[in-house]
Design brief:
binds zinc ion, Amidohydro-rel, about 30% helix, DHOase/Allantoinase_Hydrolase, TIM Barrel, 2 domains, metal-binding, zinc, Urease, subunit C, domain 1, alpha/beta, nine-stranded mixed β-sheet, Metal_Hydrolase, about 25% strand, about 450 residues, six-stranded parallel β-sheet, single chain
Length: about 450
């Protein structure tokens, strides 16, 4: 321990570190982890001890895929409610997606507007992705320099007219521009031609919706992305992978040195097409939740490292937009507060440990965004933690969630893993379902 400035020591018999889970005491100074010490280290006089017993101390989760929709569509969510829900769910860092807010994050002015709105409302540390749309090629470098963590683009319609998709030529041009300044392009990968030729039937049947968003749309888009990224030596990231068919080509691209990373989401990894009731559009998202057999391949992709991260893709809306018609209902699943227990429930069933969960939900997303102070319980990082009772269960009651709208595909599910408390830079920001006031900071790339 370095000494005088350590005011807080946290300890647990199960601390999840990059080298495995073990009993440890964590000395905190000035909001950072000063040292990770043996469990029975003497606590310096003047320091406060928080002992979590056998509850598991995880690194605070990093969720790099959240649609906060603020300003502009704050009836859908907002920085106050989103970050409060995140804090209650063990998340200490969030990156906001560039679309569904008005304005979208496609210029530096728009970024500044969003930062101003977010600053007083953020319960956790919050950063921003920029957007790459056909009209803003000249804004990409200024946005990069202003601190966005990378750029999101679509290859098929996004669902909102202010955020148009890129065609293949625009994709290649944007990718080259972004690679030119060492940036990261993150991609909603569904090919528009495959979507256009798929059967489009409206109504309450989930099978019809699933048929309208075939795996081939994802597979083809990802194939094209790999080709562009390889040719341009560009860094790309596949958002919300749903099609397990794409895993072999992604694994091959990684082996060949293509700079590609991949995320999947709790809904693809814990919910299945077979269980979606007719008209239950709280399960609608794009790409869609697929069959149980496909889900097994996604878990294999996580186990062998082809899939790097698990992030929420929390994309809420008001209840009235979730009409029972799958074709017209808003697509997006609300899950910010539930990602950790949802994934832990499935992971433990499949023989994975909380070390795996911490890697997928904290270390890897922090690495994706270059957040070197986040993502691990080790000296020098921010003292951000989630304290989890992994063997306790609870049943999801949407009315008890902090999301702005009480619509979620997880309603009524019994999940393992109760978040007992959440710590941000050495301060307890959530405990036993109550969340303190906003003390999050705004993050910029390379801070
Ligand atoms: Zn999304």
């Amino acid at each position: 321990m370095s000494g005088a400035d350590v005011k807080l020591v946290l300890r647990s018999t199960r601390v999840v570190t990059p080298d495995g889970t073990r009993p440890a005491a964590i000395a905190v100074a000035d909001g950072r982890i000063d040292a990770v010490l043996p469990y029975d280290t003497e606590v310096p006089s003047g320091s406060r001890l928080e002992d979590f017993g056998d509850d598991v101390l995880l690194p605070g989760l990093v969720d790099t895929h959240v649609h906060v929709n603020d300003p502009g569509r704050t009836e859908w969510e907002g920085f106050f409610t989103a970050t409060r829900a995140a804090a209650a769910g063990g998340i200490t860092t969030l990156l906001d997606m560039p679309l569904n807010s008005l304005p979208p994050t496609t210029t530096v002015d728009h970024l500044r507007t969003k930062q101003q709105v977010a600053a007083p409302k953020a319960h956790i540390d919050t950063g921003f992705w920029g957007g790459a749309i056909p009209s803003n090629a000249k804004d990409l470098r200024p946005l990069h320099e202003a601190g966005v963590f990378g750029f999101k683009c679509f290859l098929s319609p996004s669902g909102v007219e202010e955020f148009p998709e890129l065609d293949q030529e625009q994709l290649a041009r944007s990718m080259a521009e972004i690679a030119g300044f060492g940036g990261l392009l993150i991609v909603h990968a569904e090919d528009p031609r495959h979507l256009a030729s798929a059967p489009q039937r409206s109504g309450p049947a989930y099978a019809d919706f699933l048929a309208s968003r075939p795996r081939d749309a994802e597979n083809t888009a990802i194939e094209g992305l790999i080709a562009h990224a390889g040719r341009l030596n560009a860094r790309v990231h596949v958002l919300h992978l749903s099609s397990g068919d794409a895993l072999p080509m992604i694994a091959a691209a990684k082996r060949e040195g293509v700079r590609i990373t991949v995320e999947s989401c709790p809904h693809f990894l814990t919910l299945t097409a077979e269980e979606v009731p007719d008209g239950a559009t709280e399960f609608k998202c794009c790409p869609p939740i697929r069959e149980a057999a496909n889900q097994d391949t996604l878990w294999e992709g996580l186990a062998d490292g082809t899939i790097d991260c698990i992030v929420s893709d929390h994309s809420p809306c008001t209840t009235d937009l979730k009409t029972p018609d799958f074709a017209s209902a808003w697509g997006g699943i609300s899950s910010l507060q539930l990602g950790l227990p949802a994934i832990w429930t499935e992971a433990r069933k499949r023989g994975h440990s909380l070390d795996d969960v911490a890697r997928w939900m904290s270390a890897a997303p922090a690495g994706l965004a270059g957040l070197t102070r986040k993502g691990a319980v080790e000296a020098g990082r921010d003292a951000d933690f989630a304290v989890l009772a992994p063997d306790e269960t609870f049943t999801v009651d949407p009315a008890e969630l902090f999301h702005r709208n009480q619509v979620t595909a997880y309603a009524g599910k019994t999940l393992y893993g109760v978040v007992k408390s959440t710590w941000l830079r050495g301060e307890r920001i959530a405990a036993d379902g109550a969340v303190a006031g906003p003390t999050g900071r705004l993050l910029e790339r390379n801070q």
